[in-house]
Amino acid sequence: MSWFVSSVPLQSSSLRPDPIPWIQETYLASLEMQLLATVVLVVVALFGFGVASRFQDVVRRRSGTQLAEASSVLLLGAVVVGGVYAFSVIWHVTFVLEHTLRTMAIDRWLAAQQLVTGAIVLTAYLAIRFVNRSIDKLSQTRAITRHQSEVAYHVSDVAIVALAAAMILTLWGIDLTNIFIGAGAITAIVALTARETLTAMLAGFILLFSRPFHVGDWIEINETTGIVTDVTIFTTKIQTFDDKHVLVPNDEVTNSQLTNYSQNDQLRIAVDVGIDYDDDPEHARSVIVDAVSDLESIKNAPNPQVVGKRFDDSAIVLECRAWIADPTMRRKHDAQTDVMDAIVAAFDREEIEIPYPQRMHAARNDGFRIEDRRARKGAVSSLED
């Protein structure tokens, strides 16, 4: 093996400084010593990986995650390069490294291009990590919504990657004009074939900036009512109150009438009740107000109100209006139930009747007569006369 190494013309003193041949001839001449040195090298490499992990934790606590990851990558790279070189020295194959470097035939300009390209890629990666973590922190502080953070992820990542790609292509002398022309043609074709998808995506960005609702809000779009569970660039996911999950395209959200019941901190509910025409409407209104004013599910401000709504066939219909805080469908149903129970109990105490539909039948003086069948049976028919 020593003869083969020395006979290889690609071997260079740059990879074998003066101490290296002496170490190889003195300590690494036998197979046993080479195996032992390899085992020691593996142990040292594992120890280096552990040191890199601990070093990353220390830097993370002191300087942040981005710098910790960058320093850990550099340290691990140094461990790997040192391990590969030590392995080549142990087994007398440093000529392989020299051959690899010469095969690459790297001149100064090419080496500079490669170094700058690597720096651009590393910078873009660190920038993406930094921006994404910053978006996560803003999302945790509720400065932005989940939908906004998701859109911000995609926009920032695409922007950083596009900028890095343009810089790398320009560095390597690739003309971007043809690329832009081809991208414009492809965009035109995609715009014609996927108009609905692009419209939904554009609507997603509109929802991002207009913020008509947030995840967790109770909204109504056309005939769909429920809680917003997720908002993506293309669709809005709503969980209805009968436990159905409905995906509404964002362009339909922006083009339809939208009601957000969670926009304010209160919601008015209305309960209709009828009283008999013989009862006093003013007294009935005061009884209803007193009955619902002390309910825990009803807000005291604004105060409950009772107004006359209409004259029905069998009753005078009154409308009880009350407000609930932090509106949800469950609170609305509970408040309506409490109001109805309180009104029924109060009307029973005050002996106010809640009528049901009744119909009266009376004969008119100018009506026609109906002969009795029995009289007709006793009469003689003209045919029998």
From TrEMBL:
It comes from the Archaea. It holds the Pfam family MS_channel_2nd. The keyword Membrane applies. It is a multi-pass membrane protein. GO terms for molecular function: mechanosensitive monoatomic ion channel activity. Residues 270-354 form the Mechanosensitive ion channel MscS C-terminal domain. Belongs to the MscS (TC 1.A.23) family. This is Mechanosensitive ion channel. It comes from Natronorubrum texcoconense.
